[in-house]
Every structure is written in structure tokens, then in C-alpha cells.
Design goal:
The chain is α/β, with parallel strands linked by helices. The protein has helices at residues 12-25, 45-60, 103-118, 143-149, 154-160, 170-176, 207-211, 249-267, 303-323, 343-356, 371-374, 401-419, and strands at residues 64-67, 73-76, 84-90, 125-130, 194-202, 215-221, 223-232, 272-274, 278-281, 291-300, 327-336, 339-340, 360-365, 380-385. Helix content is 35%, strand content 21%.
């Protein structure tokens, strides 16, 4: 049983072994499209096999397993209507993914449930694995949890969100996989009984590794804006057109990229800005770029700073384009607000981490997570564990199951402190 500080003793070695076994098992050929990386997206056979793996594991613990109308996975040990504490993450992958991102959070949710039973805690628990967190199937990040939170419209699901591979709408794919997207509004009910929520995830950065900490307690998740700047110039011959007679969209793009770096630094407050995609047409070595598109990813814990950078970079691109006889326009793909974590739950995690005697830090997540959407309705927090050299979204991704087991112990301590009287 937990002590007053919310500390729970578990067999960390045994938990680490089980976590490692589950993570490694899910790298098998049944669970990924490729032997070179982890590639599994919603409604693919490999994703179905992964859900079946978790279904079997939770049913062995006596949990009831179900899926909502679009395929978010739920396992719980209490009848509907009774309060439960939520744990989980996602088990889809990036298109060049590693074995730990997301999947570790679902595996650790499973281990929380196992350890709760083994140590006689009998905590009221509900695990969730959200659909399409990475957006690798349909190009929309945190899609499953956004559906649960009502952050999408039926028109988007029917007409605007399309599969990356074949261009067909999300709605058609969901129906073909045996789900009922017409009932998508009912997905919100999977949060109805939750008294709290904790997601464990690899950090996806180097802060924990470089400071020698084994755990991070997340106090806020940065919001983000995704968009594109399109510059239209003139695709003249690279040799026959003098430098002072060009309308080069590529040069404007380059200037804009450098200005984005300056603006993000100047904004402070942890704001970051990235151009990760560049498309140039006609894309020939001997042709001046007539059209260039650059993507924008601007993130930070303060929404005002993030949106200020977006406004300023749009204005800069338009001015820079006009100076070079070109035109620039901005279009937004997606915006998600910054999300503070629940102070009481963060404090419970900090107390449990402190009671463990291991090193930890309280930090902000720069990456987006499903917890952002859960936190609209449920007190929520996150726990980070280190990943080697901060690598994520790559087959090189690596983490230590022993750190994950420690995270499980801390989560159990925090939940015990939250659900017990007083």
C-alpha cells in the first residue's frame, strides 16, 4: 500500500522485464509494415494486430475491452458509470518511427494495471490508446483524441481529412475497417468516468539525459501552429536571366526561413520555429524557382508568443516577396493551444517521484500529445522518461525499460494518493 507521500514499492526489475518484452514483441513483422522502421497507421492490418495484442493482455487481467465508434481503444476494470483513473498513450507510429514513441506509454499503462493487481492496490483504472496521434495515416496529428474532444467537424471527417496513401476520406476508411464514424460524437463518452489522466512518454529531447535525470514531470504542453507560406515568382532560365532581372521564389523562401529563426528567438518563453518541408518548382538545376512552398511549425507554452511569430513571419514574407517582384501567401493547416497540466496532479507526481529517491525534474513538453485534448475535460499530467540522445521519430530511437518501470511506480504512487480518501 502507498505511504503518505504516495510512494508505492513494486518489483522494478520484473516490471522492466515485462515492459521490455512487450515493446520488443511489438516490433515483430505482424505489427509493422517494414523491417527497417516501425510503420503502423490507423486501420492497417499491422495496427489491428497491435490492438489485438493489447486486447489479449488486458483481458488476461480481467479488464473489459472495447473500441469507440472510430477505433480509440479502451480497457477498464470497473463497470461503466463508476469513476476510474485514466492511463495510456497511442500505439500508431511516425512514418519512419521507432519502437518506443507512443507504444511505450500504452505498454506502461498495461504495466500500471498489472502492478496494481499484483500489489493488491486494486486501483480503479481505465487505459486508452488513442487513434492516429502521429497523423501518419491521415496527415492530422492527435486525430483520435481531437475527435474525442470535439475539435473536429463532421465535414472534416467526411470530406477534408484524407488518407496520405490513397487520398480517400477518413470516413470511408473508418467504415471499411468496421467502425461507425456517423456516431463520432459518442467518442467523447470514453472520458466520462475519468477522475484523472496520466500519460507516460519518451521525452523526445535531451534535457533528461543531459541533466542526468531519470524522470520528468510535465507541467505544461506547448501549443503549436502548422501552416505554409507559398511564394510565386517566375521560372526563368538559370543561365540566360541576369541576376537583376529575376523573380526568384527560392531566395524569398531562404530569407523567410532565416527570419523565422530570428523571430522565434526574439519571442522567448520557450518559443521555437521550424521549416521542415521545402517544395520548389519546377525543381530543375538549370531553372530559377518559379514557385516555392515552405512549411511552418511554431510552438511554445504561450499562445500569444506563438501566434505573434506567425503574424510577423507572414508579414515579412509578403514584404520580402514584393521587394523581389514575387508574391507570398500564408495558409494555416492546424492550430492547437498550449495546455497547462493539472496542478494537483503534477504535485502528486512530484511527491511520488521525490519519494522514490530518484532524480527528476519538472519541465514543459515541446511536443504535442493526446493529453492536450484529454486535459480539456479531465485533470491531466504527463511523465517523461529519457530517450538516448533525444532521438525520436527514427528507428534509432532508444530508451531504458528500467526508467519506464520507475515511471510506472511513480504513476501508481500518484494515482493512489489521488484516489484514496483524504
Amino acid at each position: 500500500m502507498p505511504d503518505k507521500a504516495g510512494h508505492v514499492d513494486i518489483d522494478l526489475e520484473r516490471s522492466a522485464e515485462r515492459i521490455d518484452h512487450d515493446v520488443q514483441s511489438l516490433t515483430g513483422s505482424d505489427y509493422t509494415l517494414s523491417a527497417e522502421a516501425i510503420r503502423r497507421y490507423a486501420y492497417r492490418p499491422e495496427y489491428r494486430a497491435t490492438l489485438d495484442y493489447f486486447t489479449h493482455a488486458w483481458q488476461e487481467l480481467g479488464f473489459t475491452v472495447s473500441e469507440d465508434p472510430v477505433g480509440n481503444f479502451v480497457a477498464r476494470n470497473r463497470p461503466p458509470g463508476e469513476p476510474v483513473f485514466g492511463v495510456g498513450s497511442h500505439c500508431d507510429s511516425n512514418r519512419n518511427g521507432g519502437r518506443w514513441d507512443g507504444t511505450l506509454g500504452v505498454v506502461c499503462a498495461l504495466e500500471v494495471c498489472r502492478a496494481s493487481a499484483e500489489h493488491g492496490l486494486d486501483l480503479p483504472l481505465q487505459a486508452i490508446s488513442f487513434l492516429e496521434e502521429e497523423g501518419s495515416g491521415f496527415g492530422q496529428m492527435v486525430l483520435g483524441s481531437r475527435i474525442v474532444a470535439g475539435r473536429v467537424s463532421e465535414q472534416e471527417l467526411r470530406e477534408q481529412i484524407h488518407a496520405i496513401d490513397d487520398g480517400r476520406p477518413f470516413w470511408e476508411h473508418a467504415q471499411e475497417a468496421g467502425y461507425e464514424p456517423a456516431r463520432w460524437r459518442e467518442c467523447a463518452h470514453i472520458l466520462d468516468d475519468l477522475s484523472g489522466w496520466i500519460e507516460l512518454h519518451i521525452e523526445q529531447g535531451r534535457v533528461l539525459q543531459d541533466t542526468g535525470r531519470r524522470l520528468g514531470v510535465v507541467s505544461a504542453i506547448a501549443g503549436y501552429v502548422h501552416g505554409d507560406i507559398r511564394i510565386t515568382g517566375r521560372a526563368d532560365h538559370a543561365g540566360a536571366t541576369p541576376m537583376d532581372m529575376r523573380a526568384d521564389s527560392g531566395v524569398v523562401a531562404a530569407e523567410t526561413i532565416i527570419e523565422l529563426e530570428r523571430l522565434a528567438r526574439a519571442a522567448g518563453s520557450g518559443t521555437v520555429g521550424t521549416v521542415g518541408e521545402i517544395e520548389i518548382a519546377p525543381g530543375l538545376i538549370n531553372a530559377i524557382p518559379g514557385r516555392t512552398r515552405i512549411s511552418l511549425d511554431v510552438r511554445g507554452p504561450e499562445d500569444e508568443a506563438v501566434h505573434g511569430v506567425i503574424r510577423d513571419i507572414e508579414r515579412f514574407a509578403q514584404r520580402a516577396a514584393a521587394e523581389r517582384g514575387t508574391k507570398a501567401s500564408y495558409s494555416q493547416r492546424q492550430t492547437v493551444p498550449a495546455t497547462p497540466m493539472d496542478e494537483r496532479l503534477v504535485a502528486a507526481l512530484e511527491a511520488a517521484a521525490s519519494a522514490s529517491g530518484e532524480s527528476f525534474t519538472t519541465m514543459i513538453s515541446g511536443a504535442a500529445h493526446d493529453t492536450m485534448c484529454v486535459a480539456e475535460r479531465v485533470p491531466a499530467a504527463m511523465v517523461f522518461v529519457p530517450c538516448r540522445d533525444g532521438l525520436s521519430h527514427t528507428p534509432e530511437e532508444d530508451a531504458n525499460p528500467a526508467d519506464a518501470a520507475l515511471g510506472v511506480q511513480v504513476i501508481l504512487g500518484a494515482i493512489s494518493a489521488m484516489v484514496e480518501p483524504g
